[in-house]
């Protein structure tokens, strides 16, 4: 399993249950990486999508205790149920996409974290763990900086050197 996100200089990942930045290059990377795969999220992330609808062309699994069952995505009630579902898929095709609590809970089980770093401060109210200070993670790849929509971004891949089994 992998996590995918964008973060500002302070590892901020969101504000008011939404993204801090609308960066087409980041959105394109997210879409190309996750399309045809499995995305795992909490209920607030699902609610933040237009109309509260799941992402198209992906299997959407949502941890939502006591959430109403739906036909357009898979709602699971517990972490145990979530892990049982995740095990049904190739782990390289499963992406945690938010929110902050899901990232925090599932980070130890992620083999990689794909981070689009934005060289700005977005006024976040939700944060991701600073992987540069986590001894279990190592930076495996960093793209050249790209300027887009007035922001400087880099695409980064962190490897978890102490992945926990689900």
Share of helix, binned: 10-25%
Provide the succession of SSEs: EEHEHEEHEHEEEEE
Output the CATH class name. Answer: Alpha Beta
CATH homologous superfamily identity: Dihydrofolate Reductase, subunit A
Note the gap between the termini: 10 Å
Please give the count of helices: 4
Number of DSSP-assigned strands: 11
Report the uncertain regions. Answer: none
Round the mean pLDDT to the nearest integer and report it.
97
Structural class: alpha/beta
Alpha-carbon Rg, integer = 15 Å
CATH architecture: 3-Layer(aba) Sandwich
User: Globular, elongated, flat, extended or rod-shaped: what is the shape?
Assistant: globular
Largest sheet: 9 strands, mixed
Tell me the β content.
Answer: 25-35%
Overall number of domains: 1
**CATH fold label:** Dihydrofolate Reductase, subunit A
């Amino acid at each position: 399993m992998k996590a995918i996100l964008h973060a500002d200089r302070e590892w901020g990942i969101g504000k008011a249950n939404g993204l801090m930045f609308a960066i087409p290059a980041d959105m394109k990377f997210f879409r190309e990486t996750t399309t045809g795969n499995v995305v795992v999220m909490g209920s607030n992330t699902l609610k933040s999508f237009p109309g509260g609808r799941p992402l198209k062309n992906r299997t959407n699994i949502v941890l939502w205790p006591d959430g109403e069952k739906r036909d357009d995505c898979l709602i699971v009630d517990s972490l145990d149920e979530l892990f049982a579902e995740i095990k049904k898929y190739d782990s390289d095709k499963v992406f945690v996409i938010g929110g902050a609590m899901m990232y925090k809970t599932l980070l130890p089980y992620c083999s990689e974290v794909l981070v689009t770093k934005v060289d700005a401060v977005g006024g976040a109210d939700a944060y991701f763990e600073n992987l540069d200070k986590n001894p279990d993670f190592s930076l495996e790849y960093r793209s050249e900086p790209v300027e887009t929509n007035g922001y400087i971004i880099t695409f980064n891949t962190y490897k978890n050197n102490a992945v926990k089994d689900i």
